[in-house]
Amino acid sequence: MRYINLNGKLVEEQFAAVPYDNRAFRYSYGLFETILVRDDSIQLARYHWERLFAGAKALNINITKLLTVKQLEEEVLRTVKKNSLEKLCRVRLQLYAGRGGILDEQEPPAEYIIECFPLEQHIIELNEHGLTIGIAKSIYKSNDSLANHKTTNALVYAMAAQHAKTNKWNDALVLNQHGNIIESTIANIFWIENDIIHTPPLSEGCIAGVMRRYILEKVSVVEKALTEQILLNADAVFLTNAIRKIKWVENIADKTYSKKGIQSLYSQLFS
After folding, report:
1. pLDDT digits (tens, 9 = 90+) for 200-232
2. Domains observed in the chain
3. Is it the case that residue 72 has pLDDT exceeding 90?
4. What would the pLDDT profile of 228-264 be if each residue is shown by its tens digit?
5. Helix (H) or strand (E) holding 10
6. What pLDDT was estimated at residue 134?
7. Strands (E), 220-260
8. pTM
9. 114-155 pLDDT, tens per residue?
10. What is the Cα–Cα distance from 140 to 134, expressed in whole angstroms?
11. CA-based nearest residue to 204, from 142, 258, 254
12. Best exposed site among 60, 103, 116, 211 by fewest CB in 10 Å?
């Protein structure tokens, strides 16, 4: 039986529900973190909490003094344990801006939902067979002040994912309003050219991914805008997120990419 954590209360899945007037549903007014838990430990915990609380501040979400990092960590691990998934699982923590209207005089206190899902070991390992991905060319994400935050407003990604499913791609790349490639529907993008690792800067509008941050702190990476032509000239391409770590891309359009440099990078970061 699966259990969901609603504001600190563990509820059986079939009875779990949120209020009809929650502001995540009404206005996409919230944030979420997708967290890897392994051997009863939250991976990259500091990165997740720093991003979540920075996002809450930016969105003016009312975090009460009782809702602390310590409490959220305890609730995540309690939920994982209740579902008997301590060995390996994916956690989705959604923090939303309470209930009511957006013009209400008082900002309601934030509320949260914690879900966890089983993971197979191969999901967190470097893929043997490369991904095939494409570009969702009719959908654009604005690189505004909210673009780097992992908000619950995911319509751009949902529609890009429809492109991926229609074209039988493993994922789709998302463009900003200038037509530059910034990320995929679920991951940040990196490319290697002449043995130099590159990734788009946050100013281009991509999510401030925790795995992206981890990689930038561990190895030398050049940040620059990514056009389709630059991507087609790259030697290797890979996607990153907190759950899948690094996934190498083999095909985009008619271009086939090498795995060169990605295996050694993976070993350097995760061995």
Report:
1. 999 999 999 999 999 999 999 999 999 999 999
2. 3-119 (3.30.470.10), 131-270 (3.20.10.10)
3. yes
4. 999 999 999 999 999 999 999 999 988 999 998 999 9
5. strand 9-12
6. 97
7. 222-223, 236-241, 245-252, 255-256
8. 0.96
9. 999 999 999 999 999 999 999 999 899 999 999 999 999 999
10. 14
11. 142
12. 103
Q: In degrees, to the nearest 5, what angle opens at C-alpha 167 toward C-alphas 161 and 172?
A: 35
**Would you call 30 helix, strand, or coil by DSSP?**
strand
- The structure tokens 């949260």 sit at 112
What is the 8-class DSSP label of residue 151? Answer: B
Nearest to 191 by CA among 119, 127, 240, 136: 240
- Could you give the maximum distance between any two Cα atoms of the chain, in Å? 56
**Degrees to nearest 5, angle at CA 10 with 8 and 14:** 135
Q: Is residue 177 within 8 Å of residue 143, measured between CB atoms? A: yes
Given the structure tokens 């429809």, which residue do they identify?
162
The two structure tokens encoding residue 271: 């061995």
Handedness of CA 73, 17, 57, 202 (dihedral sign): positive
Only one residue has tokens 């907190």, namely 242
HSE-CB for 152 with a 13 A CA cutoff: 22
Q: Given this model, what pLDDT does residue 271 score?
A: 82
Cβ pair 150, 166 in contact under 8 A: no
HSE, CB side, 13 Å, CA atoms: give it for residue 54. 14
Query: What is d(CA 34, CA 89) in angstroms, rounded to the nearest whole number?
Result: 10
Residue given tokens 């994982």 in the structure block:
80
Q: Position 11: which residue type?
A: V
Long-range pairs of 124-129 with CB within 8 A, sequence gap ≥ 24: 124/36, 124/38, 124/88, 124/243, 124/244, 124/245, 125/245, 126/245, 126/246, 126/247, 126/248, 126/262, 126/263, 126/266, 127/247, 127/248, 129/250
